[in-house]
Amino acid sequence: MSEPKPPTPTPTPGDTYKGWLFKWTNYIKGYQRRWFVLSNGLLSYYRTQAEMGHTCRGTINLATANITVEDSCNFVISNGGAQTYHLKASSEVERQRWITALELAKAKAVHIKAFYSPPTSGQGGGCRNSEVQSTLRTMSSKVEDLTTCNDLIVKHGSALQRSLSELEGIRVGGDMGEKTRQVTERATLFRITSNAMINACRDFLSLAQNHSKRWQKALQTERDQRIRLEETLEQLAKQHNHLERAFRGATVLPSSFSNPALGGVSAKGDASDEDDDNEFFDAMEDPAEFITVPADPKYHRRSGSNASGLSNETGLDDQSFDELSLASNPESPQPLELEPVRQRRTRIPDKPNYYLNLWSIMKNCIGKELSKIPMPVNFNEPLSMLQRLSEDLEYYELLDKGAKCQSSLEQMCYVAAFTVSSYSTTVHRTGKPFNPLLGETFELDRLGECGYRSLCEQVSHHPPAAAHHAISEKGWTLRQEITLASKFRGKYLSIMPLGSIQCLFDKSNNHYSWKKVTTTVHNIIVGKLWIDQSGEIDVVNHRTGDRCHLKFAPYSYFSRDVPRKVTGVVTDKDGKAHYVLSGTWDEKMEFSRVMQSSKGENGTEGKQRTVYQTLKAKEIWRKNPLPDGAENMYFFSSLALTLNEPEEGVAPTDCRRRPDQRLMEEGRWDEANAEKQRLEEKQRTTRREREREAVKAASTPEEAARLLFSVNDNLCFHSGPHQDNYQALWFEKIDDAASGETLHVYKGGYWEAKDQGSWDMCPEIF
């Protein structure tokens, strides 16, 4: 009988813990042996010990991680969805050693993070309060650790007692060795758990002693601050009452406001000063070496009195600037009574936990168009494709900033960042949006809140095509027509958006256009669904010839690059590079000014690389954090949560009125599936009627015969183009001279019909 190995001493919180673990990679390779290192609250892993000096394969911060034990040897470490490690130890004893080390390291990391994190701006005396809260959380965690250790001690103690009792009843024989080994393992587990209990008690006692005096001081500080705040609040209330009486007594606007050039200060001017800090100029980086900004007052920080300079920058004359200030600036002294900003919803019902086998539906659809596959709502999300198109406007501020740019090349950077930002909402969104019915619409009226309004309409059904038009008070117009071509390949699903997006700026007359990249949904057959964006985009300014070439790198397990990486170069009509962009489509983008470019060494494909010498990169876009509980609400963003919120006055064809989509949002999926089938059958019946009317209205017998053959073909085989006389209600097809493309553009009339409440022209599609 071999002697058992002596147990590794239980690590203290400051120790570095190393060892081999098996990490889950994929369904092909399964668990692979990896070298793990736990140090300073970080768990890193390598393929071999030799890689520790140069190549780290991944790191997870334990301060924000959850540690879950699955069975005797398996456990999971996750930090909320971005990183998840499925690990397996060689034995239950080894697993317990790692769990103990990880829990102790996590507790220390949480304590250090809470203790040393700086206070946020405007927080004032809240630092002590956050420290107290952090300490309370840490001590609560220690209490939980004590409870856990106590439960483990009871559990392992009982198991050890049973093993000892069984050992006493066994005669000296063949089973003695096996029972002795079991007793030794039980004793080792009991010892590890006892050591963890002792360490947790020691930490708890140390924390309680160190922070008792600090808590008393913090509480006294909070009392003093509360008294000061009450006094300040009383003074502000008196000042507010005085200003309100003075405002009500005013009969006309001050002359300084009615004429911005005379030095009137408005909130609009203050906002422009903040924007100036975000504008990118060479002289701001190194004025001694890169002096390229002309000595023009409009390039320097403007005071609040230079409102006329602001009006020139935003493309507004003095009259329109006054009108815009009166209409959109609630802080300006004006006699108009503004409507309060509507409070949008921040939650929807949680997604029900209904199981349905995707492969049972998809196995007979390999090679088919996704739009022609009848899918239950179980694989959908409660939004229409039209609403998903409208989500592109989540980062509309990028176009607002671009509209104020003096340089078309700098404006191109904002347009390119807006292009990338439209993919940020897709990283966790594996649900399929509802296919819109022909004639379905969606309006997004955020004129009072964000300064823009948007309209989408489904203008074709086979192939499915949606037209989108958005216009902003800040001087830009966005329009797009998207047709989805999709193929199911068995293991993955490819979605290829066809059509183009165009952005027009009123002040400069710059006309940009670009196309979308391919979206791929992986692990259709088995595994967790995940989404990747790959391909290249050329954003073209048709007026100046400027171009931005963006490259979305496909994910590769063997690549050392950052996942979801995007790179881009902004060039003028002569091909000279002026800006470079880099980042990821799910997090942020940065841009920097190119000062010099040169040819470098050959790359992996034999092509000569270009080396750009740039100024310090500046962040141009960052993804907004998801709302709390987003994982239970289809991973919707804050904007997406409001898109299907019921609104009064919208068209009868609006997505918000679609019954199957509403039923799914409410969690009534069985009723939603039945309603979805009813709507699809109604749409087929309507299409057949249109095709028969087209045959009757044919001008010649030859044309009637051709249409009749097409109708019969569509009714029998559902293939080929549909020849009917359908015309979109709010959009019309034109040939765009600038881009040379044919697309549907908004022809007007929708918002006027909404103001009048007249929707007689709308078809009954629901």
Explained architecture:
Keywords: Coiled coil, Lipid transport, Lipid-binding, Membrane, Phosphoprotein, Transport. Its main location: membrane. Residues 292-344, 649-699 are annotated as: Disordered. The protein has 766 residues and is α+β, with helices and mostly antiparallel strands. 36% of the residues lie in helices and 24% in strands. The chain is built from 17 helices and 25 strands. Strands 10, 11, 12, 13, 14, 15, 16, 17, 18, 19, 20, 21, 22 and 23 form a 14-stranded antiparallel β-sheet that branches. Helix 1 (92-116) runs antiparallel to helix 2 (126-169), helix 2 runs antiparallel to helix 3 and helix 14 runs antiparallel to helix 15.
Give me a quick take on this structure:
The chain is α+β, with helices and mostly antiparallel strands and 766 residues long. The chain has 17 helices and 25 strands.
Specify Rg, calculated over alpha carbons.
32 Å
Q: State the helical fraction.
A: 25-40%
DSSP summary, beta strand count: 25
Structural class: alpha+beta
Q: How much strand? A: 15-25%
Outline type:
globular
Average residue-wise pLDDT: 76
